[in-house]
Amino acid sequence: MISVIVPAYNENAWLPATLDSIRAAADHVRARSGVHVETIVVDNNSTDDTAAIARDSGATVIHEPVRSIGRARNTGARHASGEVLVFVDADVHIPRDLLDVIHETMRDARCLGGGVDTEHHPRHLVVRLHLRAWRVLAAVLPLVQGATQFCRRSAFEEAGGYPEDVWMGEDTDFYSNLRKLALKKGSAVRLIRAPRVRPSSRRFDEWPLWKTLVWTNPLFIALFRRWKVAWGGWYARPVR
Asked: Count of domains in the chain?
């Protein structure tokens, strides 16, 4: 079984499309490979209809009252039944064949998990170029952000899950720990480059260019990732 875990805070505008894409991918992998999928939405103390929307879609809803993206992801993992955990942000569209590709990737016993490449479509050309530069940097380091990440349950537990004391970068921390675990065990992690997932570009479209460039600067993130106040505008609507 595959468990898809979606952390969500006040996501009534974006969650329905995300869950629709997950449901289509679940139907596809079940038809092709006989793999069953459960969807868990972790309601991170929302004040809108996030929980009701998730239940109406057929997802299992878990309530996590402490606001923290890492804590929400970890709470979902604790309630999951699958041997493969897939973490999807609440504003991400996943392709119909993605879960099938993840299933095929995880058939390699050496693979502990990995991530999925992203495809952003912001309106502004400068932001598009900026995000492409980020992809190049991530490939060199290497880093995989958390729009969609996956792993074996056993690897998740050995890697220590997601850090719960940061407001940015918990996904890259987890992937780094997963890579270190793979090196230690003589295993591997995989980056799925196709198909790509498509996160919402809402922040990049709504913020002024200068603010986007500052808040996505690695130095700014490193200095302020544990300071909640710095990310108030970044996470006014999304989970964190």
From this structure: 1
